[in-house]
TrEMBL record:
The lineage of its organism: Bacteria, Pseudomonadati, Pseudomonadota, Gammaproteobacteria, Lysobacterales. Residues 190-326 form the GGDEF domain. This is diguanylate cyclase. Its cofactor is Mg(2+). Its EC number is 2.7.7.65. Pfam families: GGDEF, Response_reg.
Length: 327
């Protein structure tokens, strides 16, 4: 509901019923205005809070409580804090007027102005209050939307780093990770290893068992690789097609050889039958390369060396690992 549709709700607090009656009559002919009256100061705050007024008219001089104290109490109340208050006084008094505005009153009226002026002021203060409520609600909705957008962006960012089939990090993420870890290795002078892992006779597998079964194999091999990435900095990723990569920062070639052997064993232990393979089950070939990075070098030769090692493993009969040091 917008400000134009919400009703104006006037709440008058004055100990003199005659004033209450005069205001009631003044606003009676305006169908947009709902009027409520309270003559007892001690009931005022509770009544106001339950009525949700768009403007409060508060008499300054009341028998048991000073009107200014009530103005203060309205402003302390969470539900009334921003409701505009028109202070009603019996006389023009500069000092009282200035105190009323200092306490937070929005307006000061000497009882009682012409109905036309009274209604104009009631309308003006109520509309600006309702507009403010509307702006606050729009702002809150905007903040919620922004929050949702941030969350969606975060999900998208994570998805764009992940391969949809296997759940491993994809090539895009692998490249960025290699870049960061390589620079760290250059700084720290640590050996750096990489393994390329390729499923053996995968074309025949697809041709024999179907592409969907082939996809399931890739998922299982990805799982086996993930289990072999045991240190926090180790990263298993899908390189593309039926090829995977394992980044092993701060790992010498003996370590890379051990991880490569683990991958071979883990994949064999999956025991996925494959009629077209020599081992009669799904196996992989692993090519590994290790280098101690020097300044100014890039990791491209390391990737190339791992790739060559992987093809050497294929040519040597598949289902094996070839790991080399690159100098
Ligand atoms: N099911 C499935 N197959 C894929 C996917 N990506 C690549 N392939 C298949 O993987 C096969 C790779 O074939 P090749 O490069 O000839 O390798 P290979 O048959 O494994 O032979 P070797 O590597 O020499 O053992 C191709 O048939 C591709 O279509 C995928 O996401 N899902």
């Amino acid at each position: 509901m917008n400000a134009g549709e919400r009703r104006i709700v006037v709440f008058l607090v004055d100990d003199q019923p005659i004033i209450g009656e005069a205001v009631r009559r003044a606003v009676a002919n305006d169908p947009e205005i709902e009027f409520h009256y309270c003559s007892v100061a001690s009931d005022a705050v509770m009544m106001a809070a339950s009525l949700h007024p768009t403007v409060i008219m508060q008499d300054l001089v009341m028998p048991d409580v000073d009107g200014m104290t009530l103005v203060h109490l309205y402003q302390m109340h969470p539900a009334l804090r921003h409701v505009p208050i028109i202070v009603l006084s019996s006389k023009e008094d500069a000092a009282v007027k200035s105190q009323a505005f200092a306490t937070g009153a929005a307006d000061y009226l000497v009882k009682l102005p012409e109905p036309i002026e009274l209604i104009a002021r009631i309308r003006h203060h109520s509309r600006s209050y309702l507009n403010q409520l509307e702006r606050d609600a729009a702002y809150r909705a905007l903040r919620e939307n922004q929050q949702q957008l941030l969350e969606v962006n975060e999900v998208l960012r994570r998805l764009s780093d992940v391969d949809g089939l296997t759940g491993l990090n994809n090539r895009r993420y692998l490249d960025a990770y290699l870049d960061t870890e390589w620079r760290r290795a250059v700084r720290d002078g640590n050996p750096f290893s990489i393994l390329m892992v390729d499923v053996d006779d995968f074309k025949t597998y697809n041709d024999t068992y179907g592409h969907l079964a082939g996809d399931e194999v890739l998922k299982l091999v990805a799982g086996a690789m993930k289990r072999c990435a045991q240190r926090p900095a180790d990263l298993a990723a899908r390189y593309g097609g039926e090829e995977f990569a394992m980044v092993l920062p701060a790992t010498p070639s003996e370590g890379a050889q051990r991880v490569a052997d683990d991958i071979l064993a883990n994949v064999r232990n999956l025991a996925i039958p494959h009629r077209g393979s020599q081992a009669a089950c799904i196996t992989v070939s692993v090519g590994g390369a290790t280098v101690s990075p020097g300044r100014g070098e890039s990791y491209a030769p390391l990737l190339e060396a791992a790739d060559v090692a992987m093809y050497d493993a294929k040519h040597a009969g598949k289902n094996r690992a070839v790991v080399r040091e690159v100098h």
